[in-house]
Amino acid sequence: MMLTDLMLAFGKSALFALATILPILNPAATAPIFLSLTRGASASVRQRLAMHVARNVFLMLCTAMLVGSFVLAFFGISLPIVRIGGGLLVVATAWRLVNASDTGSEAPAKIAENFTPDDAIRKAFYPLTFPLSCGPGSIAAAITVGASLRSPSLLVSGTQVSGALLGLAAVGLVIFLCFRFAENLLKPLGETGIVVFLRLSAFILLCLGVQIIWEGASELMLDMMARAA
After folding, report:
1. Residue 177 pLDDT exceeds 50
2. Is 177 left (phi over 0), alpha (psi -120 to 50) or beta?
3. Where are the domains of the chain?
4. What pLDDT digit, counting tens, does each position of 132-155 carry?
5. What is the pTM (predicted TM-score) of this model?
6. What sign does the dihedral 70-75-81-82 (CA atoms) show?
7. Do residues 55 and 172 touch, judged by C-beta distance below 8 A?
8. Closest among 155, 164, 142 to 86, alpha carbons compared
9. Exposed, middle or buried, 12 (CB in 10 Å: 0-12/13-18/19+)?
10. Quick count: other Cβ atoms within 10 Å of Cβ 16?
11. Residues 6+ apart with CB under 8 A from 128
């Protein structure tokens, strides 16, 4: 096979993975929620968290792309069930944010205690990575990307997978930049504006969780109706 064909397959796979998964993750919209969940954390702790979250998202997407379909088949779990379970986690996280107190002299210090460098890294996976940054929708998309990269030729398949991995690395970089500079992006809003924006973001996250649950439940109901027919 020509080298130019392999390079073209590599580039197409990278762009395909990036264009498929990045809009679903939408790091720019998730960054304010990341800022809300890390309220009271120092800039250095937020930077470390952003780096860990970006790395975790990259590893999760890679795993889902390469072996996700096999793992789900092994345990007999369908994608609608994954959506419902992930949606419930999103709703639980959003509900805590919606009902969180906004002000209070002791609140920032109390929250900061939960974001010492060591404790913060332990919390980098849940809920900051899953389901906030990488939810069931993006996992399902990564599984779909992996399924589309299969080819009879081992060389072509390996080239396409390598390109997709580069696309996922670009996704991780975008997540890191959005989370790392989330506070700077929201500074023009002022303190009151940030509080209002974070509250609205929490409500949107709650609606997103309900939407994910509904999509999973709808697929299950359609599947039941098809079997009954």
Report:
1. yes
2. alpha
3. 3-228
4. 888 877 888 888 788 778 777 888
5. 0.74
6. negative
7. yes
8. 142
9. middle
10. 17
11. 34, 37, 38, 49, 53
